[in-house]
Amino acid sequence: MPVRVLVVDDEPMVCAHLRTILGAADGIEVVASAADGAEAVEAVVLHEPDVVLMDLRMPGVDGITATARIVELPAAPPVVALTTFDGDEHVHRALRAGAAGYLLKSTPPEELAALVRVAAQGHTVLSRSAARRLVGDAGDAHVARRRAAARLARLTDRERDVVALLGEGCSNAEVARRLHLTEATVKGYVSNALDKLGCTNRTQLGLLAREAGLRTE
């Protein structure tokens, strides 16, 4: 089955460009496009895409607000921010809203298609500049690490193992294989961790694990 993609951007030329790029890639189908955040939420419900590519700055309901609304939906697809802006504020706001990744519109076509497939598998995808910012921004890295570790202390040992592997970018299937569990059991641990830590999605769990320096033994 192809990866079904919803493209959200208020610029018709951008939507057309993304349709052309992704439509030419093997195993990807653009099922719809939307011009603002409100339309994006409706399109997710109507078309049930596997991945949403979300512009952040749009009139009306912006991409940050739309992302937060989409991740609250049942069986929400991963939302990947796709924007021309890579400033610290934009990266952090998108991820806090529940985005499963942050990519620049300047991403080469072949790389963009590959990253869409990766996002559909449950992995976090970040542009190089966004990743550098997330790694280098923690001026209070020691304090941030202690706070993250304190939050993770609420988890059981097995939940910590699962979250640590999410921090390494593992999908549920990979976590199940490495911990010798069923995928359904892994999903249960992920759900418990989300509830205990007040996180919106697995991307936020993974970021918290990396911030705390959590590793599997």
Describe the protein.
- Helices cover 54% and strands 13% of the residues.
- With 217 residues, the protein is α/β, with parallel strands linked by helices.
- The protein has two domains: 3-134, 3-Layer(aba) Sandwich (Rossmann fold), CATH 3.40.50.2300; 154-212, Orthogonal Bundle (Arc Repressor Mutant, subunit A).
- It has a six-stranded parallel beta sheet, with helices on both faces.
- Helix 4 (88-96) links the parallel strand 4 and strand 5 (101-104).
- The chain is globular, with a radius of gyration of 17 Å.
- The chain starts with a strand and ends in a 5-residue tail after the last helix.
Give me the side-by-side strand order of the main sheet: 2-1-3-4-5-6
Name the average pLDDT: 87
Structural class estimated from helices and strands: alpha/beta
CATH architecture of the largest domain: 3-Layer(aba) Sandwich
Number of domains: 2
Cα-based radius of gyration, to the nearest Å: 17 Å
Task: Tell me the fraction of residues in β-strands, as a range.
Answer: 5-15%
User: Span between N and C termini?
Assistant: 36 Å
Q: Can you identify the CATH superfamily of the largest domain?
A: Response regulator
- In the CATH hierarchy, the third-tier topology of the largest domain is known as Rossmann fold
Number of extended strands? 6
Listing every helix as H and every strand as E from the N terminus to the C terminus, the arrangement reads EHEHEHEHEHEHHHHHH
State the helicity in percent bands. 40-55%
CATH hierarchy class name of the largest domain: Alpha Beta
Number of helices: 11
Shape: globular
The stretches of 5 or more residues where confidence is low (pLDDT under 50) are none
